[in-house]
Amino acid sequence: MSNNIVIAIDGYSSCGKSTLAKALAQKLHFIYIDSGAMYRAVTLYFLRERVNLHDNNAIAQALKNIHLNFNSRDYQSHITLNDEEVSEEIRQMPVSDNVSAVAAIKEVRHEMVRQQQRMGRSKNIVMDGRDIGTTVFPDAQLKIFMTADPKVRAERRYKELSLKNPGITLEDVFENIAHRDYQDTTREESPLVRAKDAIILDNTNLSPDEQLQFALDKLSDLLEP
Ligand code: DC
After folding, report:
1. Fold topology of 6-220
2. pLDDT tens per residue, range 139-180
3. What is the pTM of this model?
């Protein structure tokens, strides 16, 4: 049996999951894996290749042609799609607008979960997403379920996105987040739901440092003999 530690961080869109996950990975020298980036990279490929989301054969074939890799050197989320660095492009609106539909496809989820489980088999990792504590690593030592006021989430995301997309409005971002929440929580295949043993972290009024301390305290409580 392997003794590696897995920290699973799930929650709604734009809740600060990746900020906390990266900080934890850096502090603990764990590997950070951004599972959402994988769904985003698949979505980018599907958009570029105009894969019909209702054609199971086309999807299965496309999945065979997709090779994803993380460069985890700096605790950020640098992902390559067939050796091309796509970390920036997968954050743009065309991908954000389509990713929930792609992430709802059973074949896509099965393949991503398989790859995610392989990545966490023998290493200490922090992985963030929607189904990490429920489906990918139900035995994770620490599970955190993050949430925050939707308006605060939209404002945070807007600040980030508007630097690179001057045309974007706060309403666009709010709508995109609301739409993704709806799709993520109502899809048939592993919907976003809190694992029974996940600790809730509402970060509406918490600084990144406070969130990090919260998670570190929980981890040390759990790992104490
Ligand atoms: O975390 P994010 O916003 O980058 O995720 C992008 C989309 O991928 C989001 O709409 C939900 C989906 N996703 C998922 O279904 N399961 C995961 N483990 C991670 C992300």
Report:
1. Rossmann fold (3.40.50)
2. 999 999 999 999 999 999 899 889 888 899 999 999 988 988
3. 0.91
